[in-house]
Amino acid sequence: MGNKGGKTIIVCQGTGCVSSGAIPAYKALEAEIEKAGLTDIQMKLTGCHGFCQRGPIVIVEPEGIFYSGVQEKDCPEIVESHLKDGQPVERLFYGDPATGKPIATYGEIPFYANQERIVLGRCGHINPEVIDDSIGSGIYRAAPRVFGEMSPAEIIEEIRKAGLRGRGGAGFPTGVKWGFCANVEADQKYIICNADEGDPGAFMDRSILEATPHQVLEGMIIAGYAIGATKGYIYARAEYPLAIKRLGIAIEQAREKGFLGRRVFGSEFDFDITIFQGAGAFVCGEETALIGSIEGGRGMPRTRPPFPAVKGLWGRPTVINNVKTLATVPEIINRGAGWFAGIGTEKSPGTAVFALTGKVANCGLIEVPMGTPLRKIIFDIGGGVVDGGRFKAVQTGGPSGGCLPEEFLDTPVDFENLAKAGSIMGSGGMVVMDESTCMVDLARYFLDFTQKESCGKCVPCRMGTKQMLEILEDICEGRGEPDDIPKLMELAEAVKEGSLCGLGQTAPNPVMTTMKYFRHEYEAHVYEKRCPALKCKSMLQYHVDQDACKLCGTCKKNCPADAIRGDKKKEIPFEIDVDKCIRCEMCHTVCPFGAVVKTSPGILSDPKEAAEAAN
Questions:
Q1: What mean pLDDT is predicted for residues 398-411?
Q2: Continuous segment of H or E residues that includes residue 61
Q3: DSSP 8-state code for residue 297
Q4: Predicted confidence (pLDDT) per residue in 201-246, tens digit
Q5: CA angle 252, 254, 257 (to 5 degrees)
Q6: Helix, strand, coil % (nearest 5) of the chain?
Q7: Average pLDDT along the chain
Q8: What pLDDT is recorded for position 615?
Q9: C-alpha to C-alpha distance for 400 and 499, rounded to whole angstroms
């Protein structure tokens, strides 16, 4: 809520900003405002704005001045210069990565201006710990309407007509799933919010729960009424303490208002929600493994059918929806199915939320209409590749997604087009890579993650991913053999076809797409024992460029293996003994003149010889 007649100072206190100093900054601003006697200034904490890379974020309303990287030491200047004298502090403005030009206001920053925020619309603008702030923003407007005007069947039909598809990765039509469950007769049904977000680099669900938990609760209430469930669970990993804390506050506040518990919103419907903390197993993002975890067992997937909508938690009909799916439901009820269906594409309506990370200038949470081209996301919103680097690939869909090269930059981002290219939407991870990324090592990294997270229940996933990882490690360490490449693809197909759940079925995607689009890098590793991206340590060599060397001796002082010979006083040139070098890269890192050069010479220097070996 705004401060009539004065200014409101919004300080982001999502996890990203808190970790970079938002709490001391908030306290310092509060103290400086009090010291200055500015009684018409209101302080307000919010959840994540999405632009986590620029945190701590402070916004001054009503003018919308956007300050980034605000530290405790900056607060006196903000109060003195901006709040007292009316002169915003330009040095704290966002700097456009392309032009370097400072941009003063929130709405002018391309990162925000090129988005269409529906799920994230309130994030960073309301206090998640004050229910009246949520109500004032329009949350809890849809639920009273459904109880007063709509039957459960009409709600399901509205969601079906909107074309809302599950935002957890699979993209199954939400209205269809609700309809299956609603048609099953049972004395008890459940609705579960899947907040078990385990993808490396993904933080969409966490940020939504931290910033606007009541929006998700309202979606669960509507879903519960539609399918006839009187009990809801939010399955959130224990590594999300701030999200869990704010969810707990929100649930208690909703109960006090009569929005949860007996006779919600004055209706005849009873509905309550419990938070269940998961232990961080990636496989528990799969709905049947999640169910097993809530029941007290080990999180392992079950064979389907029966599907959870028919036989789920404790054998009762259960609907499981992602955080983003449930947060979208009240917006559809408020604005209508036609409005939502008009956004995005015919088969993938609405918006998609991504965690944009990697070698991109603007990292953070974004929301765009389905069908937005990758190029617009990466270059217009993301600001392009960081430090003027060259784009190499983008991975969508987290550790189970595929890596797409430059030729796919104009691909519309939706369920169908990404699948056609060999990748997936997944839960919304998007990692940008530049030329310094080794695609073989990248595939190894993600397969290492999924192999460790495999529950081990089915042989293709348990053993197949292990064998694939061993081959990739051999290739990255220079032990690759010619038959490793076809063997790797054969194993990938077997794991994809034979695994029980989505974790195993999608685990080979990074390998299959990097092999398809970057096969030359695999061949360089196997046949030439060379890493083109200069990442795989066992294939690297270091030498001193004598023309660039200033004989400072920094490299020798910092070498832990005593592999550098030379003498500064006697002006004996520094050289690296490749036999003693342990490839720790310390000399390359500490050299102030860039004189230590990293190469991957390989064992085949003749291009014709390498080509013949590859064939």
A1: 92
A2: strand 58-61
A3: S
A4: 788 999 999 999 999 999 999 999 999 999 999 999 999 999 999 9
A5: 110
A6: 45, 15, 40
A7: 93
A8: 46
A9: 13
Phi-psi category of residue 350: left, alpha or beta, with phi > 0 → left and psi -120 to 50 → alpha: left
CA distances to 20, 225, 302, 330 from 151, rounded to whole Å, are 47, 9, 33, 15
* Dihedral Cα 430, 436, 439, 443, nearest 10 deg: -60
At 162-185, the pLDDT tens digits run 999 999 877 899 999 999 999 999
Pairing of strands 7-12, 41-46: parallel
The answer to pTM > 0.85 is: yes
The DSSP bridge partners found for residue 95 are 102
Contact between 97 and 68 (Cβ < 8 Å): no
Q: What are phi and psi of 108, to 5 degrees?
A: -90, -15
Q: Which of 582, 583, 581, 595 is nearest to 553 (CA)?
A: 595
pLDDT at 384: 94
| Type of residue at 135 | I
For residue 541, give the H/E element and its range. strand 541-544
User: Can you name the residues that pair with 432 across neighbouring β-strands?
Assistant: 358, 394
Place of tokens 């509507």: 222
Backbone angles phi, psi at 412, to 5 degrees: -65, 135
256: which DSSP letter? Answer: H
Average pLDDT of span 500-511: 92
The SS3 call for residue 200 is: coil
For residue 41, what is the enclosing H or E element?
A: strand 41-46
CA–CA distance, 539 with 464 (Å, rounded to integer): 26
Element (H, E) at 404: strand 402-405
In sequence order, the β-bridge partners of residue 358 are 432
Residue 484 to residue 526: CA distance in whole angstroms: 8
